[in-house]
Amino acid sequence: MKDKKEKGRGRPTKLTQEMVDLAFKYLKRSSKEWEDRYEPRAADEEEEGTKSSHKQIMVKVKKKPRLVNRPRLAFTLGVDEDTMANWCKPHEGDSEEMKSLREQFFGALKGIDSLMHSMLLERGFDSESSSQVTNRILAAKYGYKERVDGTTQDKPLPAATTIITDESVQKAVSAFEEALRPKRQ
């Protein structure tokens, strides 16, 4: 039997230098696809749907880069998102090498989050992307809001409260009585 002080260890971690390298490869490939979505052309080759600069123009490339995200990285690595989150946490008894791997992997995830944030902000101005979906992701993940409510200074509303005044009751009664009266033709 195991001594109570000795902790039972679970399965060995799949986090290896190869997994960290794959995470950074995914980040670099996604970043390159995002940067390469426009290609430079000479100004005399101008086409529809272009962005002009001083001496050259940037033309959209037909292939639209996919939005970088953690679930796609998890699929690429063959693990789930909880496992990736667990890889970023320090564990008692980790060797220096494992601590370094955890820090590197955490850096890759932060890079993916930053690139996703940047992609969402830039896609918000792109007519080919759904602005509603972009707005919802930015609101849910990064706390963005479409507008500021001047009556509450953008703070959450308290529990629903209905204020009934004598004037509002009188208007409601008058409208009800009017609706009950027979109409003349």
Question: Can you tell me about this structure?
Answer:
The chain has 185 residues and is mainly alpha-helical. It has one domain. It contains six helices and three strands. The protein has helices at 17-35, 70-77, 81-88, 96-123, 131-142, 166-180; strands at residues 38-42, 50-52, 56-60. α3 crosses α4. The protein starts with 16 loop residues before the first helix and ends in a 5-residue tail after the last helix.
Which structural traits does this protein have?
3-stranded antiparallel sheet, mainly alpha, 185 residues
Strand and helix layout:
Elements: H1 17-35, E1 38-42, E2 50-52, E3 56-60, H2 70-77, H3 81-88, H4 96-123, H5 131-142, H6 166-180
Antiparallel strand pairs: 1-3, 2-3
Helix pairs in contact: 1-4, 3-4, 4-5
Task: Characterize the largest beta sheet: strand count, sense, and whether it forms a barrel.
Answer: 3 strands, antiparallel
Overall 3D shape: elongated
The string of secondary-structure elements, in order, is: HEEEHHHHH
**Proportion of strand residues:** 5-15%
Give the overall average pLDDT.
78
Q: Give the N-terminus to C-terminus distance in angstroms.
A: 96 Å
Summarize the structure.
This protein is mostly helical. 49% of the residues lie in helices and 7% in strands.
